[in-house]
Amino acid sequence: LAAMIGHHFERAQVRDKAIHYLALAADRARESFANAEAITLYRRAIEQVDQAAVETNDAQPPRELAAHLRECLGQVLALVGRNEEARTALKAAGQFADAQLAQARLHRRMGMTWMAQRQPHEALAEYASAEAALGSEQEAIDWKREWLEIQTERMWAYYWLNDFQAMQAIPQIAHQRRQPRLPGMGRGGNRSDRPP
Questions:
Q1: Considering the entire predicted model, what is its pTM?
Q2: Largest CB tally within 10 Å, which of 64, 126, 139, 161?
Q3: Which residues pair with 191 in a beta bridge?
Q4: What is d(CA 13, CA 36) in angstroms, rounded to the nearest whole number?
Q5: Over 80: is that where the pLDDT of 32 sits?
Q6: Could you tell me which residues come within 8 angstroms of residue 141 by beta carbon, excluding any fewer than 6 positions away?
């Protein structure tokens, strides 16, 4: 029903409603594993977003929505093994994503498309970009979750490279990061003012 309503608004060139219903239909198609339909609907929603920007003389479409739809498209394309197209969509999403967390997630997802093609070196380059985009350590749970996701994907890449030493280093780094820092204490609970 959402796809049909979206189609009518699309033909009537009522962009905001067309975007809403096409994106809703795409999400529902994706949830029910109707991947080909989801890909078509996300692309139509993206076209409506871009066309609305042209018609309103905006230099760019709404950044968050443009990034979200392209990321969703990239995820579905990756799911069906269309990895190059997925990277193109995810890269396009990155042009609109402002938040560090979103940039990191997009790089990680691009890395995962390389791993699906058994290209661990390319994947590791994307994971390095993901961690760089994430920036310095934060206490926010979303930051920590994304950092752990990146490290998990790195371990898979190292596994495919048969680099067990690099794999073993990741849990050690994660363990160091989770140590509480108390006033006057360094990482790992050691007194920071203790003489060497």
A1: 0.84
A2: 126
A3: 185
A4: 24
A5: yes
A6: none
